[in-house]
Amino acid sequence: MRSRSTRWTAPALGVAAAGWVLSANQALAQPADRETAAEEEEDEAGPEAGAKRPAGPDERSGHILLQGRAGYSQPFGSMAAGQPVSEKVSGGFAFGGNVGLGLSRVTVLEASGSYALLSAAEGCNGCSGRSLDLGLGFVYHLAQGIAFDPWISYGVGYRRAVLTGSEDSASGPTVSDDVFHGLDVARIALGGDFYPVSSFGIGVFAELDAGTYLSRPGEGTDATVYGFFQFGLRLALDPVPRGTRTPAVSSGTSRRVAVQATGSRGAAHR
């Protein structure tokens, strides 16, 4: 007759062996489960998950950028001490253009110019004015490669203004021109362009120019501050073809497949 300890030894060994087999199977299954779960999570998050998105193509550096503009220009301030410009002329139609060279993705060196035809101020019969300005500055674009392109600029410039007036005399009305030469110490503009196609856009702008006339009739008068506020529409042209964008990978494609496809295209080009 077997002893009590012998009778329970075999079942205990059997239970221990079964537990070891189950734990080993679970340990072997965990790495595969983790890999499957990671792939499922990666596919759900999309092809960009866990991968650093490469920078888009530079579509501004080295490009020659052209803009034509038209709008309304309103002068303010004074021509000289005690001579407010509002006594002679008021606002009028203005037109001009810009030529820029792209320095980086967001920065452009730009030369600009505009010409304004100023109407007579109320109560000043026979008065009129003209203003020519040329400037140089930098434009900062908030984005690139998208349909809407907001921007802001700062520069300085030269201005030539002519104010025409008529006076009655014994021989009849006489017309005289007063010519002013000034320095725009601050030319601040902002706006935004919408590009229906990559090389052509249309937008709006607003610009504030402030400066002082360094040369003016009657040199005995003191210099004062003048200003011009302009706003209107502009057409933007980028004649240099923009870079070709890489087609986006669909959300249903895993990152592993996308990387393999990219590598295959690179090998084919090589």
Q: Approximately how much beta-strand content do the residues carry? A: over 45%
N-to-C SSE series?
HEEEEEEEEEH
Q: Could you tell me the mean pLDDT?
A: 77
**Shape, please?**
elongated
Structure, described:
The protein is an alpha+beta fold. The protein has a domain of 174 residues: Porin (Beta Barrel). The N terminus and C terminus are likely disordered.
Summarize the topology:
Layout: H1 4-45, E1 64-80, E2 83-84, E3 92-102, E4 107-118, E5 128-141, E6 148-167, E7 174-197, E8 200-215, E9 225-237, H2 255-269
Briefly summarize what is shown.
With 270 residues, this protein is α+β, with helices and mostly antiparallel strands.
Describe the structure using short key phrases.
270 residues, alpha+beta, Porin, eight-stranded antiparallel β-barrel, disordered N terminus, disordered C terminus
